[in-house]
Structure formats: C-alpha cells, structure tokens
Amino acid sequence: MASLLSNLSLSIVAIPAYHLLSIIPHAASISYATKGQPSKWDNRNPRSEALKAGLSKRLDAKQYATYERLEAAHANSMENMPIFIAAIVLGNLAGLHKVEGADGLNWFAGAFLLVRAAYIVVYVANDTQAKSYLRSVLYFIGVGLCWKTLLKAAAQLV
C-alpha cells in the first residue's frame, strides 16, 4: 500500500477522496430515511417533492430535519467540488506540488479534506445557532484555502 501511494500524486488522489467524502452524507441520509433498510429507498425519482412529502409524514420533525441536513451537507459538498478541483489542477500546473509544507499542494489537499470532514459533521449535528456559525466558519476556511491556492497558482502561471 505504501508503495502504491508513493507512485501517486497525493493532491490528485484527494479529488476522488473528496468525492467519496461528499457522497457519505447522501448515503447516510438514505439509510436514515429508511431506518437502516436502504433497499426500501424509492430510487425512481429521489429528488421529487412527493418523496420528500412522504418522508416528512413518516419521520418525526427532528428526524426529518436530520435527513434534510444530511442532504444539504451532500449538496454543499458537491457544489464546492469545482473550486477544489480547479485549485488542485491549477496548483499542479503551476508546480505547487513540488512545494513542501504549508505552502504546498499536498498540505492544501489534506487541510481541505479535514476542514470539509469537520464541516459535514458540524452540519449534520447542527441543532443550534452557535453550531450554524461554526459551520459557516468551516465553510469559509475551506473556500479560503481554495482561493489561496488558486491565487498562488495564478502568481506562478503569469
């Protein structure tokens, strides 16, 4: 396993890792909505209003709110994927993968994955205004990491 990773660009491997991280809340929402029986999930039109209306009747208010937060965490993660991929691709083109430490691309990729994992946990556990502010702070840290990397790449690609 160690030799496999040594032959891969960790920053590029972070892209599928982030995709998997982004899918986890969606998979959890299905398991949550079906009370642990995902085979009972109606996958014909999973974004339909009818499905959501049925869930809101079957689940109590707290359960339905958790389902909604899981889906929202998934959607937000997918919405943030393009800026992360852009930062990774442009960072590699700019040679940032050769930079060591906190200014390097591997550090950025790892930090972004950790921030986004924390974001998802806080989003799903969010039941107070205070937690919603922490979620927002984590969101802006993640986006800020991407912007920082994009600007470093822009400076190198002049």
UniProtKB/TrEMBL annotation:
Subcellular location: Membrane
Sorted UniProt keywords: Membrane, Transmembrane, Transmembrane helix
Example of a GO cellular component annotation carried by this entry: membrane
Residue ranges of the TM segments: 105-125, 137-155
Matches recorded under InterPro entries: MAPEG-like_dom_sf, Membr-assoc_MAPEG
Pfam families: MAPEG
Classification via PANTHER family: BLR7753 PROTEIN (PTHR35371:SF1), INNER MEMBRANE PROTEIN (PTHR35371)
Name recorded for this polypeptide: Membrane-associated eicosanoid/glutathione metabolism (MAPEG) protein
Originating species: Macrophomina phaseolina (strain MS6)
